[in-house]
């Protein structure tokens, strides 16, 4: 027969490095022995026929070698490309992508279906499966769903499909780069004729079989049971199923701690048709736990549970510890396996010194000890196994009294390559008696390469476990390994396994010096030789890396039944690899503790059974991990064992929640919300449990659990409901003491999808910071968003006893935050609040109202105080004197709890807590609040605005770098006789302050030239100089020091500034000397009287008896009665004798001639104004206006007038006819003057019309006269318009006013000008004006202020 066409009966792949891995073998030892024996037989058979097959393979050598070289080259190219990709991680990162999408399936009922997909992406995507947009939880229905992920291939397996599984399934892949989803449908069909097609087919829920609804009841159930190691125990219960069908078989399942049990030599199950029985053939502590019987029909399922306790068997040696438990094997390989176990609860009264691990080869009864010295770590690597053989293991504990009984033996494990184990678990082909070798013989002379990815997998003080991966270059021959070590810091390598190389890529090193650091490396070897060593590991210090957990926290016992107590405790903090807890109980006064459980529990709540009714017990708890058992917790308070109901002692669990409402409803789920219980019990609430029941024709059904795991929020989505069905709900609260009683059933709600456009109601309303007139309302946004996202909230308020119509809004404009401070309360009133959400479609339904809140400030209420210490550290401080032992300070920013201490550090001591700003910046702006738990609403808040932050930073800087504050900087003023005074005033300086006077970097001292003075009461510091000389030009500085606070102020007197000051000083000196005798107080001036007479005048002071006034004209003495005849240019002198002082006046003819400015055009609010100014004006002056050489006839639209020395012509609402030439003529009887202007042009006219709306103007708001009482405050406001924005100047008696503490002038938004006098006094009386000006014009408005005192008015 042709070799190429012969039938291959069985193919044995050899020298193939498979990377697949599967854990565990068949369920029985006999099957495992057969598998191992079969594998070894086939292997030996292949070896014996190797020579024969070599001749048959010679013809294929060349082609296969070429193929192998091609594959090897491709692999190297691929690895090189992958290496360069990894050099730049950013180029490798990408969003998830479905390489293979899941495919839709149509299957028959009771068949299995698997959906699978392949996903690429980096970082590796997280994959979640959904059924009708609800996350699939395999633990919710054990055995129903199986999720698997391996090498980016993800699968969902659905076992025993029924109509409930007909749905749309979605798989979602998500990583940091994005998220992607894809869909597949599963349709489950029945064989035709199995169901009456006329019956309605429900879309959701459990489907009735044959149209029959089964009722299941479990009666005569098993109770809490106690057994001892080595005994046999049976658990059973009667099951009544109606209607009773002769051949109907329900699904009977047994669970231990929510893990489905399978028949084995340790447990046997039996169903007699009306009774379910579970027999535990040989009790061990592994059998302890909560056992659950589950009877499932097509319409519903029924469960029944009870706890089974297994005590230790009597010790063979008195005082010996109990046996370890849960012995398992991990990471099995060719000659290596890791054995793990759990420590026993009973140590025999003495600490356990360690553990011994024993092994037994399958097929023998001989047990051999694996370790010579006891180890304390509950994990041990066993080496030296023989490849191809199977083993079981057990563990014994030892203390100083002796050895414990051995533990239950582990499952059988075979010492073989994981790839071989995976291949053996596959389906074998039928045996035909033929063996065909599919690969060529091993290559000769190939030395293996370096092992890869060497690492320290585990390190304790007893051993170190190394793991690595085989090299890629190893030929087709099997390889083994040598392990080398060296002390860190040296290069002296020492081979560990000198005699026999190891076969597994795992190795455990013993007898290392504790506390020393080592490095390790591995070499590969085969018949061709020993390869190069791998990369050495980092230095590893020998010692336990896993710490024993800390002791659990406070233990709280709570009454349960007449023979049991519920024990709760606080979890062990920062515990790593926690295995569970042991609970111990002791009768008060006995001082002897007995274990309540012999198998660790992972929860922080346990029901201790088997107690004596009427006795008082105390409890304590220990935590354990692989490193050992923790110290015992503190003993609990004593509790008497009696039933909790009717005991007369308040229960420690919470009271029922209330106010159940619906937040969202879709076709198969509803979101509930409820209010917190009024009494939380003896500890904080840890979560809530929700139950639901269906209401059919007004008759409520049986309650079902909606959530197995407690939810912390006061809102929960109840899934797997039926559309258009009616449901009721109840909620129970739980704390560390236990689960409270359920709430009253809610209203009946219909499960139908909401389609309204507006959002649903907000929920979880909370009131905090209650004061006499304010409070803060917190709430959560609605779950149902409506058609569009929520964009705001409205708050409603009403008195608690008012009607529904009394609801009124607090805010007119919607707020975007989930909180609001309400400031419209009246002290003593009681209010309720509610919240409504809005989106683009409108405002949605209101939330449930809050509980009534009394607006009052409770005695002892404190507020947050901001403090800055001497080092400039800014902190917010809150104190509470009403603390309870369980009270905690909770700081929040914008009403979200602060958990990240990057910016804020919270420190609490006793009754005070402070939040310290680490690095104050703009990111810290917000509302900070502090609430104290377990109090009567103690809370307060503080708003840190940008302005407040700026002030705090300034103060902080001043505290860090203190500066003596100055009221005034260094200034200079001239005094009598021309003296020069340099002075400044410090705002605050102590009597110990020191002053240093410096001029041009030279220190000045007291002397004839410099007179220095420091008034410590007022803080005024001054230095006086009699005069300024040329060498005094420069910089003067006052340097102040008061403790560590410093400051300085300088004044520069150089150039023109110095010369001007020196000149004024000299002038004042001369003036002082002049005024020592008769002198002119007011110099010679003139005044023109209405009769056109010129009146010359002057004022003289310090007149003495012998003083004489002499008048001179052009240097010649004149008599006064000739003065009125002079009309030409004159120089008049007045001389005072005997003390000579002179005043001169120059009179020119221009005083008496008419003069005027050019005629100008101005745009006003009313229209256009033409004006000119004259040097003086009286009634004798004749004025005439002309338009186009014709005299103007004045009307209501065209008017003229005089204001002061301004002559004006006003044209209201100008038109095209008003264009042209305008002129004004003056005539005083002696002569005339004419001024003209042209009002025309394409550019000028539109601008003039436009300018009168853009010019600066005062729109109004100021009164004509203001009469105000002395010591009051005055505030006036007016509107300003103009484009560009006008300049604003305020005047008093025609003099500009400067803004200071007395006069405060503001101009805001370019529209509003305000004038404020903080404290009015009589000197403020007078005429005031506001002057506004821009490039298009100027306008002013006047008003008068009259100030009176109360006494004067009377």
How would you describe the overall organization of this protein?
The protein is mainly beta and 1354 residues long. The chain folds into ten domains: 93-189, Sandwich (Immunoglobulin-like), CATH 2.60.40; 215-311, Immunoglobulin-like, CATH 2.60.40; 452-541, Immunoglobulins (Immunoglobulin-like); 555-640, Immunoglobulins (Immunoglobulin-like); 652-754, Sandwich (Immunoglobulin-like), CATH 2.60.40; 865-960, Immunoglobulin-like (Sandwich), CATH 2.60.40.10; 966-1071, Sandwich (Immunoglobulin-like); 1075-1150, Immunoglobulin-like; and more. The protein is built from nine helices and 98 strands. The strands form 24 sheets. Strands 45, 46, 47, 49, 50 and 51 form a six-stranded antiparallel beta sheet that branches. Strand 68 (966-974) and strand 69 form a beta hairpin. The chain is elongated. 24% of the residues are buried. Residues 96-187, 852-945, 1246-1346 form the Ig-like domain. Residues 323-417, 450-544, 551-644, 656-754, 761-860 form the Fibronectin type-III domain.
């Amino acid at each position: 027969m042709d070799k190429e066409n012969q039938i291959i009966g069985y193919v044995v792949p050899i020298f193939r490095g498979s990377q697949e891995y599967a854990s565990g073998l068949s369920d029985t030892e006999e099957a495992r022995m057969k598998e191992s024996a079969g594998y070894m037989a086939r292997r030996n058979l292949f070896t014996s026929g190797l020579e024969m097959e070599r001749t048959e393979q010679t013809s294929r050598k060349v082609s296969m070698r070429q193929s192998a070289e091609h594959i090897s080259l491709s692999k190297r190219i691929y690895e090189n490309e992958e290496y360069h990709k990894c050099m730049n991680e950013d180029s490798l990162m990408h969003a998830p992508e479905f390489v293979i999408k899941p495919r839709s399936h149509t299957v028959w009922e009771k068949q299995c279906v698997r959906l699978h997909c392949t996903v690429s992406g980096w970082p590796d995507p997280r994959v979640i499966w959904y059924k009708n947009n609800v996350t699939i939880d395999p633990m919710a229905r054990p055995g129903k769903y199986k999720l698997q992920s391996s090498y980016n291939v993800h699968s969902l397996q659905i076992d025993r499909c029924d109509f409930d599984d007909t749905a749309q399934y979605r798989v979602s892949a998500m990583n940091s780069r994005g998220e992607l989803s894809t869909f597949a449908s599963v349709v489950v069909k029945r064989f035709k004729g199995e169901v009456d097609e006329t019956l309605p087919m429900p879309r959701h829920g459990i489907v009735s079989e044959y149209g029959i609804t089964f009722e299941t009841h479990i009666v005569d159930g098993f109770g809490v049971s106690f057994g001892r190691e080595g005994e046999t125990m049976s658990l059973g219960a009667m099951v009544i199923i109606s209607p009773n069908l002769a051949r109907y078989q329900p699904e009977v399942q047994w669970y231990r701690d929510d893990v489905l049990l399978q028949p084995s030599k340790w447990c046997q199950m039996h169903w007699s048709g009306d009774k379910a029985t579970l027999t535990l053939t040989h009790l061990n502590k592994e059998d302890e736990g909560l056992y659950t019987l589950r009877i499932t029909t097509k319409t519903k399922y029924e469960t029944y549970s009870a706890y089974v306790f297994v005590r230790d068997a009597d010790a063979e040696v008195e005082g010996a510890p109990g046996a370890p438990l849960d012995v398992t094997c991990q990471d099995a390989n060719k000659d290596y396996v890791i054995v793990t176990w759990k420590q026993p609860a009973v140590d025999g009264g003495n600490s356990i010194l360690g553990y011994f691990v024993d092994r037994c080869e399958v097929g023998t009864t001989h047990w051999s000890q694996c370790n010579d010295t006891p180890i304390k770590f509950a994990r041990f690597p066993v080496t030296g196994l023989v490849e191809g053989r199977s083993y079981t293991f057990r563990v014994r504990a030892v203390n100083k009294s002796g050895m414990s009984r051995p533990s239950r033996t582990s499952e059988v494990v075979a010492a073989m390559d994981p790839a071989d184990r995976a291949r053996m678990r596959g389906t074998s082909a039928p045996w035909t008696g033929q063996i065909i070798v599919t690969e060529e013989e091993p290559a000769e002379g190939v030395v293996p390469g370096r092992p890869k990815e060497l690492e320290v997998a585990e390190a304790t003080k007893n051993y170190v476990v190394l793991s690595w991966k085989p090299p890629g270059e190893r030929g087709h021959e099997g390889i083994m390994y040598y392990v080398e070590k060296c002390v860190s810091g040296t290069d002296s390598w020492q081979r560990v396994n000198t005699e026999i190389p190891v076969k597994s890529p795992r190795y455990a090193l013993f007898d290392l010096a504790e506390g020393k650091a080592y490095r390790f490396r591995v070499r590969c070897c085969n018949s061709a030789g020993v390869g190069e060593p791998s990369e050495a590991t980092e230095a590893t210090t020998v010692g336990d890396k896993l710490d024993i957990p800390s002791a659990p926290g406070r233990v709280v016992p709570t009454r349960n039944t007449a023979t049991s107590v519920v024990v709760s405790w606080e979890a062990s903090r920062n515990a790593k690899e926690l295995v569970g807890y042991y609970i111990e109980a002791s009768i008060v006064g006995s001082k002897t503790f007995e274990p309540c459980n012999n198998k660790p529990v992972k929860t922080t709540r346990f029901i201790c059974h088997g107690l004596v009714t009427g006795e008082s017990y105390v409890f304590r708890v220990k935590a354990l991990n692989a490193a050992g058992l923790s110290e015992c917790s503190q003993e609990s308070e004593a509790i008497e064992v009696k039933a909790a109901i009717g005991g007369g002692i308040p229960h420690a669990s919470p009271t029922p929640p209330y106010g159940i409402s619906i937040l969202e409803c879709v076709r198969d789920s509803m979101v509930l919300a409820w209010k917190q219980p009024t009494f939380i019990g003896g500890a904080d609430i840890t979560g809530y449990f929700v139950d639901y029941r269906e209401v059919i024709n007004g008759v409520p059904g049986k309650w079902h659990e909606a959530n197995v795991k407690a939810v912390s929020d006061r809102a929960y989505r109840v899934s797997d409901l039926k559309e258009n069905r009616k449901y009721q709900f109840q909620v129970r609260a739980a704390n560390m003491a236990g689960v409270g009683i359920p709430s009253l059933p809610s209203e009946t709600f219909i499960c139908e999808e909401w389609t309204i456009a507006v959002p649903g109601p907000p929920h979880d309303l909370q009131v905090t910071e209650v004061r006499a007139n304010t409070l803060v309302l917190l709430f959560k946004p609605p779950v149902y968003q409506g058609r569009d996202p929520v964009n705001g909230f409205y708050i409603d308020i009403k008195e608690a006893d008012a009607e529904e119509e009394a609801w009124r809004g607090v805010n007119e404009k919607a707020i975007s935050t989930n909180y609001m401070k309400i400031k419209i309360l009246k002290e003593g009133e009681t209010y309720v609040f509610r919240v409504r959400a809005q989106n683009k479609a409108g405002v949605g339904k209101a939330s449930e109202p809050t509980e009534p809140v009394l607006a009052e400030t409770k005695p002892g209420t404190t507020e947050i105080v901001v403090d800055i210490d001497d080092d400039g550290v800014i902190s917010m401080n809150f104190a509470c004197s009403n603390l309870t032992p369980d009270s905690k300070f909770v700081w929040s920013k914008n009403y979200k709890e602060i958990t990240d201490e990057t910016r804020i550090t919270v420190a609490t001591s006793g009754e005070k807590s402070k939040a310290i700003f680490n690095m104050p910046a703009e990111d810290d702006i917000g509302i900070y609040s502090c609430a104290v738990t377990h109090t009567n609403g103690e809370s307060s808040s503080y708003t840190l605005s940008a302005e407040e932050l700026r002030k705090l930073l300034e103060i902080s800087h001043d505290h860090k770098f203190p500066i003596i504050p100055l009221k005034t900087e260094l200034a200079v003023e001239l005094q009598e006789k021309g003296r020069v005074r340099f002075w400044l005033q410090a705002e605050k300086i102590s009597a110990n302050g020191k002053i240093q006077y410096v001029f041009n970097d030279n220190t000045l001292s007291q002397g004839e030239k410099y007179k220095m003075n420091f008034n410590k009461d007022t803080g005024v510091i001054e230095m006086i100089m009699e005069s300024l000389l040329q060498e005094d030009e420069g910089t003067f500085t006052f340097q102040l020091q008061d403790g560590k606070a410093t400051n300085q102020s300088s004044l520069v007197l150089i150039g023109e500034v110095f010369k001007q000051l020196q000149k004024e000083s000299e002038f004042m000196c001369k003036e002082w000397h002049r005024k020592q005798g008769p002198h002119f107080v007011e110099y010679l001036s003139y005044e023109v009287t209405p009769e056109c007479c010129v009146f010359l005048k002057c004022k003289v002071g310090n007149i003495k008896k012998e003083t004489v006034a002499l008048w001179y004209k052009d240097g010649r003495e004149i008599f006064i009665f000739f003065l009125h005849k002079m009309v030409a240019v004159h120089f008049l002198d007045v001389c005072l004798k005997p003390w000579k002082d002179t005043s001169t006046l120059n009179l020119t003819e221009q005083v008496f001639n008419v003069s005027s400015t050019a005629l100008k055009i101005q745009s006003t609010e009313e229209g256009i104004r033409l004006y000119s100014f004259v040097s003086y004006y009286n009634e004798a002056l004749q004025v005439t206006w002309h338009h186009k050489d014709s005299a103007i006839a004045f009307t209501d639209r065209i008017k003229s007038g005089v204001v002061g020395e301004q002559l004006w012509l006003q044209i209201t609402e100008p038109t095209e006819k008003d264009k042209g030439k305008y002129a004004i003529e003056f005539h005083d009887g002696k002569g005339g003057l004419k001024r003209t202007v042209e009002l025309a042009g394409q550019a000028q006219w539109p601008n003039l019309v436009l300018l009168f709306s853009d010019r600066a103007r005062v729109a109004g708001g100021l009164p004509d006269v203001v009469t105000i009482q002395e010591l009051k405050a005055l505030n006036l406001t007016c509107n300003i318009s103009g484009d560009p924005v006008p300049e604003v100047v305020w005047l008093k008696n025609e003099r500009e006013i400067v803004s200071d503490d007395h006069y405060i002038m503001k101009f805001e938004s370019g529209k509003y000008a305000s004038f404020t006098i903080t404290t009015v006094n009589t000197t403020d009386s007078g005429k005031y004006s506001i002057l506004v000006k821009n490039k298009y014009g100027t306008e002013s408005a006047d008003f008068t202020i009259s100030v009176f005192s109360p006494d004067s008015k009377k």
